[in-house]
Specification:
The structure is a homodimer. Chain A is an alpha+beta fold. The first copy, chain A, folds into 3 domains: about 80 residues, Rossmann fold (3-Layer(aba) Sandwich); about 70 residues, ATP-grasp fold, A domain (Dna Ligase, domain 1), CATH 3.30.1490; about 200 residues, ATP-grasp fold, B domain (D-amino Acid Aminotransferase, Chain A, domain 1). In chain A, about 30% of the residues lie in helices and about 25% in strands. Chain A is built from 12 helices and 18 strands. In chain A, the strands form 3 sheets. In chain A, strands 10, 11, 12, 13, 14, 15, 16, 17 and 18 form a 9-stranded antiparallel sheet that branches. A 5-stranded mixed sheet of chain A has the order 4-3-2-1-5. In chain A, strands 6-9-7-8 form a 4-stranded antiparallel sheet, with helices on both faces. In chain A, a hairpin with a 5-residue loop joins strand 10 and strand 11. The radius of gyration of chain A is 21 Å and the shape is globular.
Chain lengths: ~375, ~375
């Protein structure tokens, strides 16, 4: 009765899928794309020598990241086992395709212009007006591959830097997407899931906080229903358009009452890690249910829950575990500055209790390792009190 | 920073410890006591050839069942890594030692008499009066190794059966404990945890229902605080006396306002599986925290939650997963009549919702495989409405 799942990518998302899938009798293995070996997502054990064997031995294939080489995606697609389809994964990995998708669904997003030459660059500035953010079309993540142009005087230098980057890049078909920098109120994201039969379920919206371009804190709590509906409508439109299967995350900028799509991730997402403790069914289980064609689990909020990323640290004080409703999730990765090493989920019966516990957490954690946490917790607590 | 844990026993409890321990960066391996091989608790992968290698490669050793051979326990104890200590595990595996412990702590329990001969048998009947339940001192579980004597006319036949059993038994030091059959109102259990430093935390009491001697349903919901206090006091007394480290379960008979200890399990327990979805920290994580000398996690009830054992079946209808707040946990064991193959956790915001969902579950599951569930759900729902 055991179903075998192969995940393209052997990082923390494959790891958490394995943990969520095991109770459902799913056997989750992972493809380490750098070595082309199929490995156990928790132990470093190698299972098959190559992708071909991994494909043959899988019932279902999925991806934990969108920057999978297209030949790998194509090979998996040919087996008929890949969910979501390679098209959706490729769109998530290319900002130009992403923009085209948003246009085709009439989904609000920041005004943009594609840049491949100095001429495009100048046209983009004219068309969009400053400030503008330039992002690589391919392979950007965690704020990497981005340039911010705020004043005209910097244009020449930034173009030079971008041109050097493009010239040096070995990535085939690399390009730049210029985007109007939107003065947004906050960044929020929606994690949702779609089953093969078209069933859709979305989690409550999550408010996200970044430090140096990397997500540091996400908070899920009862939220503005109008925004939730708006986001849900976008999710439905995009996922239906793609005939999507699995979990997909949509990052939004909130500008007043409006949501602009920032980007789409065709996979389980860091801003959905709170679901492990705060939702009825976690995003990892729901992704697996969807791709294995099982009924979707309820996405209801059980308790207001925050997630704090552990970045560049491989240890935190034990006292963290003494705070009620704190769960620590390590990824067992080698320590490296800026690397996501784990995360901490904190829940409360209500938002005030959550805020208090978050403050307790900030008081214990080293401020050098969690630079913005104390400030965030203080503000959040003030808002609740 | 990874701590290595070896579990004596490679069944579902070791499996669920592995799943709960991985996020905490604990590397949980299991000793298959029948083959003396150290294996991965999820995959069947063999890791070390024997116990000695397992001991050397572990930081901490624990047990998933109390019937571990004493030479194995002694070998582990000598390494200084075994938690709880072998004494506690041995007590849990021998009803005579268990009774002696209860006496030494003045803990209320059913009146009893040890039986090794026909003479003892007759004395037991005199001392206890009918009805009496006779239980093997060693190796009894899930209602196995028990005889019920209700009318004097059956005494001779039951003694013959017991004498045959004792003669045929290859178990060293086997014996019988005769117990007064208590006309109890219900069976409840307390799962608690104690850290090396003496910190204790207990979960809410669970009401247990058995079918043919096997636990079939446990329900955890807000409960009589007086009983909870009484049970907590017993837990504290027994676990302090044993200098216990880890999770321990105590099964009680409730007789009016009084709790009589039925038996003690020096380990994570089937009646605590609901904690995976219904408590702040599940029993598996708390056991690991305790034996690794980490702060205990909160044992607070998050939501009223019931657990339904899947017995002798290796499949259930997919529609079960469509019920909100249902989690299915399979153990990946070969199908065998009467075998615990998995369990289903169901939660509700309040008991009425829980009862409704339990009824939905009973409506879907095959009554042949879950014979008492529908009846239980109906009564529970009636009580809430």
């Amino acid at each position: 009765m055991m179903k075998k799942v192969l995940v393209l990518g052997a990082g923390q998302l494959a790891r958490m899928m394995q943990l969520a899938g095991t109770p459902l009798n799913l056997d989750v293995k992972a493809l380490d794309v750098s070595s082309n070996k199929v490995v156990h997502p928790i132990t470093p054990e190698q299972i098959y020598g190559d992708l071909a064997a991994g494909i043959i031995n899988a019932d279902v294939i999925t991806a934990e990241f969108e920057h999978v080489a297209h030949d790998i995606l194509d090979e998996c697609e040919q087996s008929g086992k890949l969910f979501p389809k390679s098209e959706a994964i490729k769109i998530g990995g290319d900002r130009r395709l992403e923009k085209a998708l948003l246009e085709s669904c009439n989904t609000a997003n920041a005004k943009y212009y594609f840049v491949n030459s100095k001429e495009d660059f100048d046209k983009a500035i004219n068309y969009l007006s400053l400030p503008i953010i330039f992002k690589t079309a391919l392979e950007g993540y965690d704020g990497k591959g981005q340039w911010r142009l705020k004043v005209a005087a910097d244009a020449e230098a930034i173009w030079q830097d971008m041109a050097d980057f493009l010239n040096a890049s070995t990535t085939v078909n690399q390009g730049i997407v210029a985007e109007q920098m939107v003065p947004f109120d906050r960044e929020i994201s929606l994690v949702g899931v779609r089953r093969i039969n078209g069933d859709v379920a979305v989690y409550p919206l999550t408010e996200n906080h970044h430090t140096n371009g990397i997500l540091t804190v996400s908070v899920a709590a009862p939220i503005n229903t109008k925004l939730q509906e708006q986001a849900g409508t976008v999710f439905k439109a995009l996922s239906d358009k793609l005939n999507y299967v699995g979990v997909m995350a949509i990052e939004f900028f909130q500008v007043g009452d409006q949501l602009l799509v920032n980007e789409i991730a065709p996979r389980v997402h860091n801003s959905g890690h709170w679901t492990q403790q705060g939702a009825d069914t976690c995003q990892f289980e729901n992704h697996l249910r969807a791709i294995c064609d099982l009924p979707l689990g309820s996405t209801a909020l059980v308790r207001p829950t925050a997630m704090v990323n552990i970045i560049g640290e491989d240890t935190i004080p034990d006292e963290v575990l003494a705070i009620a409703s704190v769960s620590v999730h390590w990824y067992n990765k080698g320590k490296r500055a800026g690397r996501k090493m784990g995360h901490i989920n904190v829940s409360g019966e209500h938002e005030l209790q959550l805020a208090q516990r978050l403050q307790n957490l900030a008081d214990i954690l080293c401020p050098k390792a969690f630079p913005d946490l104390n400030d965030f917790a203080k503000k959040y607590l003030d808002k609740q009190s």
